[in-house]
Amino acid sequence: MRRKIKSNVKKPDVKREKRTLIANQVEHDRKTNATYGIFQNVAIWDVDLSKHFASFMQTKFPGVTRMFENKFMEISGNEYIWFPALAVLYLMHPLVHKQLPLNLAIAMAFDSAVILLIKALFKRRRPTAKNPDFFTAIGPDQYSFPSGHASRTTLIAFVFTQINPLFDNGHLNFVISTLIWSWSISVCFSRMLNGRHYLFDVLTGAGIGLCEGSFIVSFFWMSPEQAEGLRRFFPLGNASSDMT
């Protein structure tokens, strides 16, 4: 009989290496986010909490974490996708009323300006990402605070609930509203689990999205009649509607 030869090579301790990696990332992020004046303690607390949250999710709920980490979550919340999509929706008149794409376009343009201004002001560096974003961040968008994906998707969900074309159908309206809010929350989670933002970035972004939605509805909201009245400034929209 052959004798089994015991190997003297020690197997790598995966859990220990993972803990060490997380600790190194936390220390790295602490150093790169340590110049915030009165916000320094909040930034350090945010780094620690964000890492612990990601580690907890990856350990306890690996399946859910993988779902949040997929590229769909990132791409579906990107403005590079939404602005062209709104242009398509605008040209689909009368299948989609112009009030929906026009109000969303105004809201998202306002959101982009607010988020880029705050990012340029705070210049918080992003955490160490597991995977780079599909779209390259340029200008102030390379910074972390606040999360543009969180503000954008929260704003979209908020505005959509104000002009959901399915209001007359109570059950279907409830289902669609639940789905779009679930998508928005999932995108927010994905930004943390992908290592693109810290917890405070996402929470602040979502709060900004809600405030922007309330502001847009109160001061810049376009009624169906006002949205319809703008058709004369958009020949393509007129042409498409005249053909129907």
Automatic annotation (TrEMBL):
User: Pfam families from the entry?
Assistant: PAP2
Question: The Phosphatidic acid phosphatase type 2/haloperoxidase domain covers which part of the protein?
Answer: 100-217
- InterPro entries documented for this protein: PAP2/HPO, PAP2/HPO_sf
Q: Which domain of life is it from?
A: Eukaryota
Keywords of the record, alphabetical order, are: Membrane, Transmembrane, Transmembrane helix
Transmembrane regions listed in the UniProt entry: 80-96, 102-122, 198-222
Molecular function via GO: sphingosine-1-phosphate phosphatase activity
Q: Which organism was this protein described from?
A: Daphnia sinensis
Q: Which Gene3D superfamilies match?
A: Phosphatidic acid phosphatase type 2/haloperoxidase (1.20.144.10)
Query: Does the record's keyword annotation contain Signal?
Result: no
Specify the protein name.
Phosphatidic acid phosphatase type 2/haloperoxidase domain-containing protein
